[in-house]
Amino acid sequence: MRWLRALLLLPILSLSLGAANPVLVPDVSQRKIDIVYSFTGAELLMFGAILYPGGRIPTEKADIVVVLRGPSQPLIVREKQKLGGLIWVNAESARFLSAPGYYAIASSRPLEQLVDERTAAIYELGVKNLQLSPASNEQPETRRRFEDGLIGLFSKANLYVEQPGSIEITNGVLYRARLPIPARVPVGTYVTETFLVKDGRIIAVASKEVQIDKSGFERFVAESARHYPLTYGIVAVLLSLLLGWGAAMAFRRI
Question: CA-to-CA distance for 225 and 106, rounded, in angstroms?
């Protein structure tokens, strides 16, 4: 599917170079977002302009779709079942090789009014079209159940977001969209993609990168856990023992 998407982008790029198609000039309000201890979330403004050949804006104006995608990661989704009507235990599970840790999409109109299902699947427009790359060989019905479960969990945590009809286009040239960044967002390099859509076809694509990283004490802890896992584990255990001993002594005096 990804190589097919790359092939479809070739005519878009060649037409853009020949000035036959409009060109997108995107930008973002923040190129780098720092996560500190007081971070409760943020809002990323994605904006830009549509440059038409000769500066002539067509009568039938095009639509805009923007996507913000976080770094992909392998995941294991487990299904829980109640045992004896009392205890929840892990039952079946499914492993995915590359699920995006964050995905948000906004559009000037609902996606089903802009592109057909095939185009949406090729460009991964919408959470239901994400290519989650399952690693196990379950039946299609079982795999789809786990995919729906994964999407449901991430959507509930505001890590998968859809905002149809939220993009504002001014005078057919300037556009802007606001996408939420939740507090528990994963760190890494994010990619913003902007699509110009007209008559059911994607006629221009542009992208930018956004870096989300920990800062301050959170960065120190994350770097320590990554580079010195043994020392980090020992310190964490000792700190837990110290806090437990301190709490026990405090309650003993009461």
Answer: 35
Name the packing angle between helices 229-253 and 217-227 (round to 10°): 120
Residues of the chain with confidence (pLDDT) below 70: 1-20, 37-38, 84-86, 90, 215-228, 232, 235, 246, 248-254
* Cβ proximity of 12 and 29 under 8 Å: no
Coil, strand, or helix at residue 12? helix
Cβ atoms of 167 and 66 closer than 8 Å: yes
Domains and CATH numbers, the chain: 2-74+101-214 (2.60.40.1930), 216-254 (no CATH)
- By residue count, the chain amounts to 254
Write the pLDDT tens digit of every residue in 166-195.
Answer: 999 999 999 999 999 998 888 899 999 999
Tokens 């805009």, located at residue: 64
If we measure between CA atoms, which residue out of 63, 54, 131, 138 comes closest to residue 95?
138
State the Rg of the chain over Cα: 23
